[in-house]
Design goal:
413 residues, mainly alpha, ADP-ribosylglycohydrolase fold, 20 helices
């Protein structure tokens, strides 16, 4: 198998682990204390940050957990994700005991419902093994994500991302000047493919026109970024939101949200932006906060389109938790060998790691004091409050007068 396969897995897992530290935290809170990272850090040592969702430094989240699980599934014990989901249900494997920092769509794999929300994590958890096929099979394979979510932003993003992996795995000399240019080319081809495969999309229970419209939206974003070449992340973020927001009910101002149509273009920009700077994306992108894990993962993968991608920092690779088992598994898959890691063993070890992380976090939060988020107070105008009380008062008075007049009328009658 192409040696890039092991590089893809390592980049996702290590990016996931470094981004997990700042998952769920606002960008402004992070950047008030950090300008750059140098290794894994313990969020418990930071000030004025909510540590209630803290994760052990160097420990990966649900992105890597499901990625490894589905990669084992793709080469060994189970024929498909549906069968794997049924077997996990039979074994009473609960998402809460296994997954770390999972979203609604990921949790749905352990239950019988499909989320309708977008999820930036779903494209990342599908095994790169699915990208080793080509043509129609590759297109159909990517639609396996519809087991997690019915959101079309996520569906189109998964098909796009799977094609990205296919190109990285099968093209050793990619003639792209930038990651944005590469994704523009791939999205243009995806629009053409979606037009040709309308019957197949319909047979999968999806609307071909809606899917195509979302593919076109991805293409338009990359075309705009490729044309303008924004000089700063703020400008790139503004361009992306400006194109997407007209299609949404609620406008969004930032791209570090849980939606691949925001994260994928933003990550492609970061891959190009830091290619000309001494900084490495592994230490910069996590500082974006919120859904930092998936954002860092995408940026690390898109960097592989560049002529000389920066290597994974050794300090991260050496301090990854459970690294011996993970690296052994990755190398065995990359060498086309039978993986020694079994699904049952992997689930057992991950449940133990999740339990340890939760217990350690619970113990730390008993003695640590963090600044709780301020509750939002609804500000009413004085006139509105006064009007409310006046209305209630007059209602009661009117009711009393009515009863009094009713008694008088009964007496007179």
């Amino acid at each position: 198998m192409n040696p890039n396969f092991s590089e893809i897995l390592k980049r996702i897992i290590i990016s996931d682990a470094i981004g997990a530290t700042f998952e769920g935290i606002k960008r402004t809170q992070i950047k008030s204390q950090f300008k750059e990272l140098s290794s894994f850090i313990d969020i418990a040592k930071l000030k004025k940050l909510d540590t209630s969702t803290r994760i052990i430094p160097g420990l990966y989240t649900s992105i890597s957990q499901l990625l490894i699980l589905f990669t084992i599934n793709a080469v060994k014990e189970f024929p498909n994700l549906k069968k794997l989901s049924e077997d996990l249900s039979d074994q009473n494997i609960e998402a809460e005991k296994f997954l770390r920092k999972a979203d609604t769509a990921e949790n749905s794999f352990f239950s019988k419902f499909t989320a309708s929300y977008p999820s930036a994590k779903i494209p990342l958890i599908l095994s790169p093994l699915s990208a080793t096929v080509s043509g129609k099979s590759l297109f159909i394979e990517a639609f396996s994500c519809n087991q997690f979510t019915s959101d079309y932003h996520t569906l189109a993003g998964t098909v796009l991302y799977t094609q990205v992996l296919h190109d990285i795995l099968n093209n050793e000399d990619m003639a792209y000047n930038s990651a944005i240019e590469a994704l523009l080319t791939i999205s243009e081809n995806l629009c053409e493919t979606a037009s040709n495969y309308s019957p197949e999309i319909f047979s999968l229970g999806k609307n071909p026109d809606t899917f195509l419209a979302n593919c076109v939206l991805y293409r338009d974003i990359f075309a705009k970024l490729n044309k303008t070449m924004p000089p700063t992340p703020e400008k790139a973020e503004s361009i992306i939101c400006e194109i997407i927001n007209p299609t949404l009910k609620t406008p969004i101002k930032h791209c570090n949200v849980n939606n691949p149509i925001f994260q994928i273009p933003y990550s492609a920009f970061f891959a190009d932006y830091y290619s000309t700077k001494p900084d490495t994306i592994f230490f910069k992108i996590p500082l974006e906060g919120k859904f930092a894990s998936s954002l860092t993962c995408y940026s690390a993968i898109f960097e592989l389109f560049l002529a000389n991608p920066k290597p994974i920092p050794s300090i991260l690779a050496d301090n990854l938790i459970n690294k011996k088992e993970i690296y052994t598994f990755i190398e065995s898959i990359s060498a086309d060998k039978k993986p020694k890691l079994r699904i049952a063993d992997f689930l057992e070890s991950e449940i133990q790691l999740t339990s340890k992380s939760n217990k350690e976090n619970l113990s730390l939060n008993k003695c640590l004091h963090f600044l709780p988020q301020k509750s939002r107070k609804v500000n009413y105008k004085n006139e509105e409050i006064l009007a409310k009380h006046i209305t209630e008062s007059w209602t009661k008075i009117d009711k009393a007068k009515w009863r009094k007049s009713l008694k008088k009328s009964d007496f007179n009658y």
